[in-house]
Amino acid sequence: MHHRRLQYFVAVAEELSFTRAAERLQMAQPPLSHQIGLLEKDLGAQLFDRSRRAIRLTAAGRALLPEARRLLADLDRTTRMVRRIGEGSVGRLSIGFVPSAANGDLPDLLRAYRTGHPDVELVLREMEPDALVRSLHDRQLDVALLYLPVTDPELVWRHVATEVLLLALPAHHPAGAAESVNLQDVRDEPFVLPEQHDVPGLHSRITQLFADAGVTPHVAQQGVWMVQTVLGLVAAGIGLAVVPSSAATLRRIGVVLRPLRGAPQTVELAAVWRRDHGSSLVTGFARALPREEPRDR
Fold first, then answer.
1. Where among 17, 52, 84 does a domain terminate?
2. Alpha-carbon span 37 to 23, nearest angstrom
3. In this structure, are residues 191 and 218 in contact, taking their beta carbons and an 8 Å threshold?
4. Do 243 and 278 reside in the same domain of the chain?
5. 48, β-bridge pairs
6. Cα 3 from Cα 14, distance rounded (Å)
7. What is the CB neighbour count within 10 angstroms for residue 250?
8. Is residue 256 helix, strand or coil?
9. Could you tell me the residue range of the domain that residue 75 belongs to?
10. Which DSSP symbol is given to 196?
């Protein structure tokens, strides 16, 4: 049976008039009568008693009517479900992120995405940068949020946020009294440095910051990759540190954050996914990001 013929049948059965049903369906009456005739031929049963002035449903027609309504409702429900899957409105989206992303724009981004995609199940995983990239390649993650640069040719990225790099000092440090600090003024201080991953990310930006200032940092502790831990070591007086501005949301007691004098140094947080993702969910997530075309590396 053609589903359109079922629609025609339901309209005639509810109106009990070919004329009114044709008006409701916005079509001419002869084609409607012809389609009902073809449906009756397909089923091998007469659906309407046309022997009187007002048509009536036959026993076969009365039996078909609730089933036709159910079949049409099922088809409509299935069509809407498939369409929503194709639009990325339902499904399961796995998102990984570096911990500091949760201190910055990630909550707002997820809130905006959930508003437009309430039926998408989000699976969130906090991971270090190299593990994020491996999980993208292994298809355990659909999207990852991490700091640029990302140089993998199989991945594309979109901008999420730009953060300014700040100097973190113990609260009692003399330089903390100033509105901003020049790295040259603290060049002899010990520093806590982030871990160096295969993904250049934050480490490369901080390393470049010292190089641009002509400062070779005295390393008190290195290989620390969580900003919360870095701030804890700063509060303990282990050393100073350079951190992204999202660290300010942590409000760590015993730590003050100060801008660095000179040209502001920034680090860019990006959403990254596989070039061959083929997922409408990823496409839908990308629509929630700042308007910008996906870029390589």
1. 84
2. 18
3. yes
4. yes
5. 57
6. 17
7. 16
8. strand
9. 3-84
10. P
Task: Report mean pLDDT in 10-residue bins for the chain, 297 residues.
Answer: 85 92 92 92 91 88 92 79 62 90 87 85 91 94 93 91 93 90 92 85 88 90 85 93 91 92 84 90 84 50
User: What pLDDT sits at residue 84?
Assistant: 61
One domain for residues 245 and 269:
yes
- Alpha-helical runs (H) found in the chain: 3-15, 18-25, 29-43, 59-86, 106-116, 129-137, 201-213, 227-235, 280-287
Q: Enumerate residues 6+ apart whose C-beta is below 8 A from 163.
A: 104, 244, 245, 246, 266, 267, 268, 269
Task: Name the token pair of 68.
Answer: 């036709």
> How many residues in the chain?
297
For residue 152, which amino acid is it? D
Residue type, 237: G
Alpha-carbon gap, residue 231 to 250, rounded angstroms:
9
Q: Is residue 173 within a helix (H) or strand (E), and if so which, with residue range?
A: none
Residues 55 and 196 both lie in one domain: no
Phi and psi at 148, nearest 5°, equal -80, 160
Q: How far is CA 72 from CA 12, 57, 64, 83, 238, in A?
A: 15, 19, 12, 16, 70
Q: Give the dihedral of Cα atoms 221, 224, 226, 231; nearest 10 deg.
A: 0
Does residue 69 sit in the same domain as residue 91?
no
Rounded Cα distance, 181 and 187, in Å: 11
Q: 182 is written with which tokens?
A: 């020049």
Whether residues 264 and 136 share a domain: the answer is yes
Give the domain CATH number at 287: 3.40.190.290
CB atoms inside a 10 Å sphere around CB 253? 8
121 within 8 A of 91, measured Cβ to Cβ? yes
The alpha-helical segments, DSSP class H, found in 16-159 are 18-25, 29-43, 59-86, 106-116, 129-137
Q: Estimate to the nearest angstrom the gap between the alpha carbon of 70 and the chain centroid.
A: 35
